[in-house]
């Protein structure tokens, strides 16, 4: 009788009914599985990134020891010939090496631009190595370098206020004291223009993000691109060097032409 009652009881129970905690258990399993997979993926990606960064630092250290340490010191502490590089950041390194100013060819009032001595990969390695030795300005983000979506008129105003006294309002450059000069800015890459403003190479003042915001620097870069792409509305630019070159042109060619015409008319009348 007991066996029949047990069978009847089992038949009366709902078939396939889940335990009340089954849903919670499934959620926990799903969360643990997802979390474990994410942790594995991110740890692998982090390990790869770390390994890549370490390889760049090692490569940059070798390049620095072979090409820069003679003047700047093996530990970047500087010597009597060159300043310390601790804390200058990746941006300063990328600008100086990427424009060919470094390694320095010859001592002089300032480092002059020359053909670049390293590949882009080597320049990146040097920048990463120097940045690893002390915090400093980083290489600018691409969003500030496109020249698209920024205000060219505001960039022109900012350039006239902050840069034109040395570089000329048209970016043609100009002479400074003691044999130094502000270089012409025609065809300067957006990245190097931004890095120059950010780090203040040689005689140039530093325009950090408090002086000029990243957006304002991008406006100035947009203005420089405008100068490169837009022809002079006044005709022949005469080097865009301003009233001095224009006045010299008038004295030599203008007055010279008047004198020549006067002589010709006088000779013809005689």
Describe this structure in words.
With 270 residues, the chain is mainly alpha-helical. Among the domains are: 49-137, Cytochrome Bc1 Complex, Chain D, domain 2 (Orthogonal Bundle), CATH 1.10.760; 140-234, Cytochrome Bc1 Complex, Chain D, domain 2 (Orthogonal Bundle). The chain has 10 helices and 2 strands; from the N terminus they run αααααααββααα. The chain has a two-stranded antiparallel sheet. β1 (174-175) and β2 form a beta hairpin. α4 crosses α8 (190-199) and α6 packs across α9 (214-229). The protein is elongated, with a radius of gyration of 34 Å. The termini are far apart. The mean pLDDT is 84.
- Sheet having the most strands: 2 strands, antiparallel
Q: What would CATH call the class of one domain?
A: Mainly Alpha
Q: Which H/E pattern describes the elements?
A: HHHHHHHEEHHH
Helix fraction, binned, reads 55-70%
CATH architecture of one domain: Orthogonal Bundle
Distance between the termini: 155 Å
**Poorly predicted ranges:** none
Widest sheet, order of strands: 1-2
Q: Structural class, from secondary structure content?
A: mainly alpha
The radius of gyration is 34 Å
CATH-assigned homologous superfamily of one domain: Cytochrome c-like domain
What is the number of strand segments? 2
The name of the CATH topology of one domain is Cytochrome Bc1 Complex, Chain D, domain 2
What proportion of the residues form beta strands (DSSP E)? Answer: under 5%
Characterize the overall form: elongated
If helices are DSSP runs of H or I spanning 4 or more residues, what is the number of helices? 10
């Amino acid at each position: 009788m007991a066996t029949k009652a047990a069978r009847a009881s089992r038949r009366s129970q709902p078939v396939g009914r889940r335990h009340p905690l089954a849903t919670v258990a499934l959620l926990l399993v799903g969360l643990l599985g997802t979390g474990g997979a994410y942790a594995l993926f991110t740890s692998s990606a982090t390990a790869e990134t770390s390994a890549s960064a370490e390889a760049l630092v090692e490569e940059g250290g070798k390049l620095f020891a072979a090409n820069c340490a003679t003047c700047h010191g093996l530990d970047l502490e500087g010597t009597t010939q060159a300043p310390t590089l601790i804390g200058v950041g990746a941006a300063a390194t990328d600008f100086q090496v990427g424009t060919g100013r470094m390694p320095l060819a010859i001592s002089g009032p300032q480092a002059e631009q020359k053909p670049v001595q390293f590949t882009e990969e080597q320049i990146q390695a040097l920048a990463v190595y120097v940045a690893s030795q002390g915090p400093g300005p980083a290489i600018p983000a691409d969003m500030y370098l496109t020249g698209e979506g920024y205000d060219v008129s505001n960039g022109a105003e900012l350039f006239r206020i902050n840069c034109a006294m040395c570089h000329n309002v048209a970016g043609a450059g100009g002479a400074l004291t003691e044999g130094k000069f502000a270089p012409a800015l025609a065809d300067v890459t957006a990245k190097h223009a931004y890095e120059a403003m950010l780090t203040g190479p040689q005689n140039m003042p530093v325009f950090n993000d408090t002086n000029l915001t990243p957006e304002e620097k991008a406006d100035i870069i947009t203005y420089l691109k405008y100068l490169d792409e837009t022809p002079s509305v006044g005709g022949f630019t005469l080097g865009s060097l301003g009233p001095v070159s224009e006045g010299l042109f008038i004295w030599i060619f203008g007055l010279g032409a008047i004198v020549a015409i006067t002589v010709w008319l006088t000779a013809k009348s005689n």
